[in-house]
Design a protein that fits this description.
heterodimer; B: alpha+beta; six-stranded antiparallel β-barrel; 4 helices; about 35% helix
Chain lengths: ~160, ~290
């Protein structure tokens, strides 16, 4: 496993998640961290999984100022599900994988919405689900970039 | 152990792991929601992720730096003139304020009330890292290193903005008035009628529930912080009443108000350290007020 690529990609995903955007763009922001997590969960299911997801979620909670454990729980569950089905999902064509990503995005957002609904007033609108859609749309790009990154590292080591 | 668990419920280790993590998360959320005990952990973690937060603001700062410097050379002269005039005006008003303040203090002492003077203020800048969407929070570039504390009031030139909810070494998070979790004790400036203003989650709308139909409040009333609860100092403008409605089915009034400050505008805010000076320590005198 090339831990440097993994670490680097998670860092970039965290950066993209906290990048200041204009208000109009913010509702379209893909769930970057979840996308990268899904990829590595499929690529190295024996190393990257529930605990990694949980830890990254905790970092996100700290960055967003949300309840500690909110994103941590959601991402741990996403990582668990991806780990569970990685053999099947890995051989899907990209557009079908996008559907899985959409599903995961919705699960992630739902878990977050539940926690926020329980702990405080939280009114939901259609645009709340937009990140799941944009995540699914951008998935092929994320997949290709991360795959190339992984292969390059592997091949340079082999040489 | 694993073997035992597997035999017990037919569960695979991964399933056990995820259940443990979920339980841990729920426990953390409960503690975090109910008490301040995890504030220390959050403080440490927030300080650790500060580099990421810092790097993520670089592009915006660059863009603003460039547009800002272009703007600057154009309007510098007129801006300076306008500011000079405003400064003159404010200074003359401040002179009057000082004498009024001294009067006020003397009268309050006669009445035996505790008084609030000697407020320390600190200018903080918004680190416009977008926090969780659909919550009304901002983060500031001052943290516990600058003595920022949880519960500290945050204001700007017009009035109250919100209060600090988390701090780390270099940054702090502020809940705006409009956040669903925010509540500020206020009173009507006209007659001293007390109430509490709650955030609604909707921009530019605050609700003031639990006032009965006979309460003397009307559209246009200014609500100022009442100082109840001891967090916000007395007398800062918070909101103006925009609507007072009596639903036939409801024994309470429906009151909507508009914050006096544009909560989503402006880059600079003030952190204040209110100090309640009671009768016991009257030595603290206006010198400290110069800020």
């Amino acid at each position: 496993m090339n831990s440097l690529s993994v670490l680097l990609s998670f860092l970039v995903a965290l950066l993209l998640s906290s990048l200041p955007l204009p208000d109009i763009a913010i509702i379209y922001r893909p769930e970057w961290l979840m996308l990268v997590l899904i990829y590595w969960c499929m690529a190295f299911p024996d190393r990257i999984g529930i605990f990694t997801g949980w830890l990254l979620g905790l970092v996100l909670d700290v960055m967003y100022g949300s309840l500690l454990g909110q994103n941590a729980m959601a991402l741990a569950i996403v990582a668990y599900l991806v780990n569970l089905f990685h053999l099947r999902v890995r051989v899907f064509p990209l557009w079908q994988q996008s559907f899985i990503v959409l599903l995961m995005g919705i699960i992630n957002l739902t878990l977050n919405a539940w926690v926020r609904g329980i702990t405080g007033e939280f009114s939901i609108s259609w645009s709340y689900w937009m990140p799941a859609l944009t995540s699914a749309l951008i998935w092929p790009l994320v997949y290709i970039v991360l795959r190339d990154m992984r292969r390059q590292r592997v091949s340079s080591r082999d040489l | 152990m694993r073997e035992l668990l597997r035999r017990l419920g037919g569960a695979t280790p991964a399933t056990v792991r995820v259940i443990v993590m979920i339980a841990l998360s729920i426990a953390m959320m409960l503690i975090d929601h109910r008490s301040q005990q995890l504030e220390k952990l959050r403080n440490i973690l927030q300080t650790a992720v500060y580099p990421i937060m810092f790097v993520s603001t670089i592009p915006r700062d660059l863009i603003q730096g460039i547009t800002g410097s272009m703007e600057r050379s154009e309007n510098l002269q007129s801006d300076k003139e306008a500011l000079r005039q405003e400064n003159l005006l404010l200074r003359s008003r401040l002179k009057k304020m000082h004498s009024l303040e001294a009067d006020n203090r003397r009268l309050k002492r006669l009445l035996g009330q505790s008084e609030q003077i000697a407020e320390r203020v600190l200018l903080a800048e918004l680190v416009e890292v977008n926090l969780e969407p659909y919550t009304q929070k901002i983060s500031l570039n001052k943290g516990s290193r600058d003595d920022v504390y949880v519960g500290q009031p945050v204001i700007n030139g017009d009035g109250v903005i919100g209060q600090v909810v988390h701090t780390s070494q270099f940054q702090s998070t502020v809940t705006l008035l409009t956040d669903p979790g925010s509540a500020v004790p206020v009173m009507v400036m006209r007659n001293g009628l007390r109430g509490v203003l709650f955030g609604t989650g909707v921009r530019n709308r605050l609700a003031m529930p639990y006032l009965t139909a006979d309460a003397d409040i009307r559209t246009g009333d200014l609500l100022i912080s009442s100082g109840m609860g001891g967090r916000f100092p007395t007398g800062y403008p918070v909101a103006t009443v925009t609507e007072v409605k009596q639903e036939p089915s409801d024994e309470f009034l429906t009151i909507n108000t508009l914050p006096v400050t544009q909560l989503d505008h402006g880059r600079e805010v003030l952190l204040i350290w209110p100090e309640i000076v009671g009768d016991r320590k009257e030595e603290v005198l206006p010198e400290a007020f110069d800020e």
